[in-house]
Design a protein that fits this description.
By secondary structure, the protein is mainly alpha-helical. It contains 31 helices and eight strands. Among the domains are: about 140 residues, no CATH class; about 220 residues, no CATH class.
């Protein structure tokens, strides 16, 4: 029996002692005799006990107990337990003198100053048996009534609750509540062998009674409220039902007795559901506490009562539970907490398989929290309320939405950040399908896997897995598992070409995020081969893949992850033919870091502009970022034109107006070129690139003339210059490596998957 249940029994016994201190000696003796009578009835195998139990139900109803589900709970709770031979061993009722002494001791203990410390574990299990009243009056007299005067928490009706919080205020409040709850969880662990509580407590009959939230009360500073609960009956019965409106502020998110803050609970989750009813220690989480979610915020329409044993069900059917429980409260995402106590914001567009990986403690998908984590910043009490301090988890996505919502300029093609096409692909397999397939795969190929001891053996086996995967049209879980195994073998064998074939095959078949899949396995390859000789690794395939990955990452504002790709790619530039590639990658890493800084400033400009559309200076500043860093001139130019007066606004107006003659197009190009000479960094590069676009448009129509020589000289100067923006450097890298920048990562995968199938077949032949 778990300690949590023992602890509840001990508390129940203490309540009996308090009653003894308040009643006369004769009354105490009467209660003790009735308690022994119950033990006789429960442990007897005579038919009469069934009648007594039925009679108890009738009396309970007559004395005001609720009906419906509560009656069903009590029927099960009163089911007989134990061995009738134990009846003789039951202790006899103490004499009146002994009872009086016990009452005096209890009264003295109650009068002693309380120490505000959480209750400790009972040294050994304590039996708890309810009495069976023999009359309606006795039932009413013995029904537990909470001592409301002692409770630290006022009823909801007596509290001033602000239900008009803004979304930002609500986000800050939820994060603060989660932090307090996690502090209480940490304190709970110290008293319970370093383990989390289980999702719910159970009574002797195995019935779920109270939520883990009740078990946390002493550690949140509510020991008296905790002591008022009857831990032998369900949450919605008797005294427990009366305590519903005493919901602590830490769980108060819904304006009533319900809460949006729940645990991630299940047979493979931090709040472990197990037959032993013993929690799990964070140190025992195989995937690491930092990569596992422990608390999460659910939708308003599925909120449980705070004492109710109900949480987010991270079960084998978790994929079906996600849309029901998550993402509708905030609209753009959900607030959660990692098992290390770090709050996080998870965007609504997160890949389902990655979110599922975060729910489980024994996952085998190499999941890292960074794949879905977004940092939440919130204002501390007393700080000045600034937009930057608020929880604005959607800022990143708002920029991307503006960026993606506008098509390229029809007159001057200025965007190289290719959008993903909408291919028809099949859904990603469920976690259960994948895990089942992985188990089968290990069983079927265990000998082959052990025998693959050389790089050549591993590459060969990985290619065989990919070929098998490509033929498994009716077994998506098996195909996914085979692709995963092929990727692992590719890393062990230092085979970059095999790795990209596997990635492309997965992206081409399953509806997953192409950028995330490429980033994950590119970085995994770099980490997995970090201690090996880079010069013996054929890195050309990775170098070529760097271009579309970085361009797509810039589109999605993933600047630092793109910089990590450049860092890894630069390790595979051995040999003189890659000297210039190495230099470009080094410069690109620096420029991506600068772009990240510009992006952080742009988020603030965007927020200022949102809050006050009359702040055209903030709008223009954001427009500069959209133009010069993102390359979305059609969106950014309009914001600049609507901004304060200046040379940039004048040139932007010329650009939007356009020109129908070659000479007019040259004039616009010259205006941008002149601006570029007065700027620096990505802004210099962006203005120069814009000038080049106009020059290239004009030169096709210019006759042989001084104007044409002038334009040719400018174009040559641009080609000879080193790029000073990430996009420009990506284009230079694409030219050196002969990479087609018009293809998206998904289109590359679709094409690569078809060609790799032929290569695999040829290798097999």
């Amino acid at each position: 029996m778990g300690f949590g249940f023992q602890h509840q029994i001990a508390i129940g016994t203490n309540r009996i002692d308090e009653c003894q201190a308040e009643l006369s000696v004769g009354r105490i003796n009467e209660i003790l005799i009735k308690r022994n009578s119950l033990m006789d009835i429960r442990k007897s195998n005579q038919p009469a006990r069934l009648f007594a139990l039925g009679f108890l139900l009738v009396l309970g109803t007559a004395s005001g107990c609720s009906d419906g589900k509560e009656d069903l709970f009590m029927k099960a709770a009163a089911r007989p337990r134990g061995n009738p031979d134990d009846v003789a061993a039951a202790p006899a009722a103490p004499p009146p003198a002994a009872a009086a002494a016990a009452a005096a001791a209890a009264a003295a203990a109650a009068a002693a100053p309380e120490k505000n410390t959480p209750p400790k574990a009972a040294t050994k299990p304590v039996a708890q048996v309810a009495s069976v009243p023999k009359s309606v009056e006795q039932a009413a007299a013995e029904t537990a009534v909470p001592d409301l005067a002692k409770i630290e928490v006022k009823p909801i009706s007596e509290r001033a609750i602000n239900n008009e919080l803004s979304d930002e205020e609500s986000r800050r409040a939820t994060v603060r509540k989660m932090l307090k709850i996690f502090d209480a969880l940490t304190a709970y662990q110290k008293d319970h062998g370093g383990k989390f509580p289980t999702p719910f407590t159970v009574n002797e009959a195995g019935i779920q009674c109270l939520s883990w939230r009740v078990e946390l009360l002493p550690y949140l500073g509510y020991p008296e409220l905790y002591s008022q609960f009857d831990h032998s009956v369900p949450w919605n019965f008797g005294a427990n039902k009366e305590l519903l409106d005493r919901i602590p502020d830490e769980f108060l998110t819904h304006g009533d007795t319900k809460t949006n803050i729940v645990a991630v609970a299940g047979e493979f989750s931090p709040f472990l559901v197990s037959p032993s009813h013993i929690g799990i220690a964070p140190s025992s989480i195989r995937d690491g506490a930092a990569n596992t979610l422990v608390l999460i915020e659910v939708n308003d329409d599925v909120t449980p009562n705070w004492t109710e044993p109900a949480d987010f069900p991270a079960t084998r059917r978790v994929a079906a539970e996600i849309p029901k429980h998550l993402f509708r409260k905030r609209g753009d995402g959900v607030i959660a907490m990692w098992a290390t106590g770090l709050p996080t914001f998870i965007h609504k567009d997160v890949q389902t398989n990655l979110l599922i990986d975060a729910f489980f403690i024994k996952d085998e998908q190499d999941f890292k929290a960074s794949q879905i984590h977004q940092t939440i910043a919130f204002e501390e009490p007393g700080e000045e309320n600034t937009a930057g301090d608020e929880i604005m988890a959607s800022q990143t996505d708002a920029i991307t939405e503006i960026d993606l919502a506008v098509s390229a300029d029809d007159f001057v093609v200025d965007r190289v950040l290719i959008e993903e096409e909408d291919y028809t692909r099949e859904p990603e397999p469920s976690v259960v399908q994948i895990r089942t397939a992985q188990t089968k795969l290990r069983s079927m190929f265990s000998t082959r896997i052990k025998e693959a001891t050389t790089n050549s053996d591993r590459s060969k086996l990985g290619k065989e897995f990919l070929e098998l995967s490509s033929n498994m049209e009716s077994d998506p879980g098996g195909a996914f598992a085979l692709q995963q195994a092929a990727m692992r073998f590719a890393i062990e064998a230092e085979d970059a070409d095999l790795l990209l074939q596997a990635v492309d095959q997965r992206v081409a078949r399953f509806d997953i995020n192409a950028l995330e899949e490429n980033l994950k396995w590119f970085l995994e390859f770099g980490e997995g081969t970090a201690s090996r000789n880079d010069r013996v690794i054929e890195g050309a395939p990775l170098l070529k893949r760097t271009v579309p990955i970085v361009l797509t990452a810039i589109r999605d504002d993933e600047y630092m992850r793109a910089a990590s790709i450049c860092r890894i790619a630069s390790r595979y530039t051995g040999g003189s033919r890659f000297d210039e590639v190495s230099r470009i990658l080094t410069r690109m890493r620096t420029q991506l870091g600068l772009a990240k800084n510009e992006y952080e400033d742009a988020k603030q400009y965007l927020e200022d502009f949102r809050l006050n559309p009359e702040n055209v200076a903030a709008g223009a500043a954001f427009g500069r970022f959209v133009c010069f860093i993102k390359g979305d001139w059609k969106t950014g130019l309009q914001l600049i034109v609507d901004g304060p007066a200046g040379d940039l606004r004048d040139v932007a107006r010329m650009d939007i107006k356009g020109a129908g003659t070659a000479q007019g197009q040259v004039a616009i190009g010259d205006a941008w070129w002149d601006l570029s000479r007065r700027a620096s960094g990505p802004y210099r590069q962006g203005a120069q690139d814009r000038a080049v676009k106009w020059y290239e448009k004009a030169i096709e129509r210019l006759p042989d003339s001084l104007d044409k020589i002038h334009v040719n000289n400018r174009l040559q100067d641009a080609r000879d210059s080193s790029g000073t923006s990430p996009i420009a450097q990506c284009l230079q890298l694409a030219d050196l490596l002969n990479v087609d920048v018009s293809q998206s990562l998904t289109s590359i995968a679709m094409e690569g998957s078809r060609s790799s199938a032929g290569r695999l077949q040829n290798d097999e032949d």
